[in-house]
Amino acid sequence: MSGANGSSTWRNWAGNITARPAREVSPASAAELAEAVRRAAEDGLTVKAVGTGHSFTAAAATDGVLIRPDLLTGIREIDRAAMTVTVEAGTPLKRLNAALAREGLSLTNMGDIMEQTVAGATSTGTHGTGRDSASIAAQIKGLELVTADGSLLTCSEKENPEVFAAARIGLGALGVVTAITFAVEPVFLLTAREEPMAFDKVTAEFDELFAENEHFEFYWFPHTGNCNTKRNNRSAGPASPPGRLSGWIEDELMSNGLFQVVCSLGRAVPATIPSIAKVSSRALSARTYTDIPYKVFTSPRRVRFVEMEYALPREAVVGALREVKALVERSPLRVSFPVEVRTAPADDIALSTASGRETAYIAVHMYKGTPYQAYFTAVERIMAAHAGRPHWGKVHTRDAAYFAEVYPRFAEFTALRDRLDPERRFANAYLRRVLGE
Asked: The whole model's pTM is what?
């Protein structure tokens, strides 16, 4: 068996989760992966696949067999008639985006980070923002996965449709994804307009800003009344990317270099955070640029953080955000990271955070190494009161009893899990909590 070796400690990107698997395997094909699952069963071990560890939950942690995706990468097939691309599960999104661009193709929508593998990102419900276009998982047209008995199952709207309805966001509970087929379209241009705006104005005009833009999002800076808004809309061109210097100042100095210093200072001396926030949120300037989608949707994130994000019914988001603002203002909390608000249309995936409802997201972050429990717990209380659904890959404390209430199709998912993985080959502590025994 290629790539099998002894145990070492696995850590996620944020460093808040560690695991010591009994063994690690790096299969180079779906057949090798299936063999690893069968061998694990013989040895009575559970199996988990990891991506790049970009989840903040223990979704991929295991003391059994850890499947590393490093050799399961690359594009299998581009079908220009069907306008689809089939990729190996371990392919990083940044490699997929660059390869598609060379072929004159693009995904329709994506999140703002592209370090994750395609399987890791979709299995946890990673999303960007969109009025009409949904999460990365909603763009899936076909899936291939190794199930608990070591067999290879393919699913789509036509083939095994009941598996397809759930497995696009499968949390690693139904099997190990080996390949994904995405819908793609001819590459297009987006014009991004970034503009500072007062909190009261953004929240008062949220419905219009959402309705008028294909992709709208904004960030509120805690301890201030300031926000930064971003509108991405399709454009006839021409392309005009940010200038090298201004792009470097915004994306590297402000978002990574200077922000790292500010966060470190805030961690050491929390009392400085509100005054720094007032200065830095006012330092933002408006800018407009036009480029191909992945260069507009995504940005480098080198400052490490821990994150919690909740999906709410879209009509509830402004009220909930005002509650978060009031909470920060009346508490001793000191929060250096902006709060992010995005949207998604309703989709038809069983455990999608946007399943069956028009959705808006509120994401809160804390700098790595800063105590986050008090802040996240207080925010989570607000979100749960609005029937919020937490992002599967981000910090939360909800359990199966809660999910059974906020996901109408929760029982459909767990019944499918019972059928595909009756012995819980793919179980771990996280899945026991969120899906039940």
From this structure: 0.94
